[in-house]
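hiii so my PI (J.) wants the whole complex modelled not just the main chain, which honestly fair. so below is everything: four entries, each one labled with what it is. i double checked the lines twice but i was tired so who knows lol
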Amino acid sequence: MSPRPKGRTIKSDLRERIIEAAWEQISREGAPALSLRAIARDLDIAAPSIYNYFVDRDALVTALILEAYESLALHQKMANDALPVQDLHARLVSIGNAYRDWAVTYPQRYLLIFGTPIPGYVAPLETIAPIAARSLHALISVVESFHLAGRLKVANLDDQTIAVLIWTRVHGLVLVEITNNLPPISPSGSQLFEIEFRLIVDQFFVD
Amino acid sequence: MSPRPKGRTIKSDLRERIIEAAWEQISREGAPALSLRAIARDLDIAAPSIYNYFVDRDALVTALILEAYESLALHQKMANDALPVQDLHARLVSIGNAYRDWAVTYPQRYLLIFGTPIPGYVAPLETIAPIAARSLHALISVVESFHLAGRLKVANLDDQTIAVLIWTRVHGLVLVEITNNLPPISPSGSQLFEIEFRLIVDQFFVD
DNA sequence: TACTGTAAGCTAACACCAGTAATTAAGAGG
DNA sequence: CCTCTTAATTACTGGTGTTAGCTTACAGTA
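here's the output for the full assembly
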């Protein structure tokens, strides 16, 4: 219709600055400590102004979760695409390493997505589910490729289930590492990851 | 030295009632929503009275975490002791099932222990670590028994590492289940657990 | 019995939080 | 120039953890 009024397009880009400040705060203090008023202080604005851009705190959290999934999915895709299609083993390892790297680089984002839900927050599944699925897509497609190549060791499980199991194994390991719940006697997170990933490959795929 | 004054021992047992109310609240609303004032309302006392029994909110949380670990460790021990010492496979399965059962029965307690830390809370490791270790004890001892019986399939990993890996697998699965992060297409939590546990046994132990 | 000290409750208050209502300043379009 | 909309503001409500200071009841002692 009518061209976007200039005032709007030029508009202060405050929405993005709010999200940026929120990330800044999350990486410092963790997701559950996210405070609209602290964001407002950081940005030198009045707290209620945030409500011009997000209907409430949950809406902001949802936006952050979407961004985090987006980032994770992108890293997965890059790790996957970085290697030749036919080298399934290399692609699998690349995906796995990229997954852990992302998690330990952005532990608070990882926890925001997969950790204990924030007190009052309930994720709008219909918004998040599609993009959440995308972060598993690279893994599923590699498993399917192994299957098509006849290189699956387990015959009685379908590809999706295998992918989910691989994911929960990696997820559990990564989560334990970034929440500092590794037993003190155990090997380091990265060592353990390497061992576990070898075991995963060994159990499911002909190398 | 001098005998505990009667007034103290008879004392209102308020401390236990606070903890009880806290559990009640946690199972309803989840750990991060725990509120001292809400507890006080439930018990018809003034909020600051709680500070007679816990130096601050974190101290209460620590007490709750200890109780939760205690309960988990006890369940593990019972599951372990319920079966003959020599039937390693049965004991392992029993431990595994008990672990998941406990987690799905008390999801909020499980999340309290292993989930995203509560906003300001930092766990006093020296208090928690010993009892936390106990909840892995049953598993470690079974793995050691398998080792002594010469029934370990993997030769290059020590018992502790194997136990930790088994735990992180089960942990990841259980956590994904109770935080509702299972991909919609995947099998149910209990089915997945059964599959995964079979894979675990198959990979590490001679049956 | 009367006195004293302490433990454990209380109210009041502070500083923070999310969110709402009402108001103002500024700019766009007629 | 006037009006309408948008995005900012301040003021406020009701929630949170926590501290300070007061009060009450009771144990131990003289």
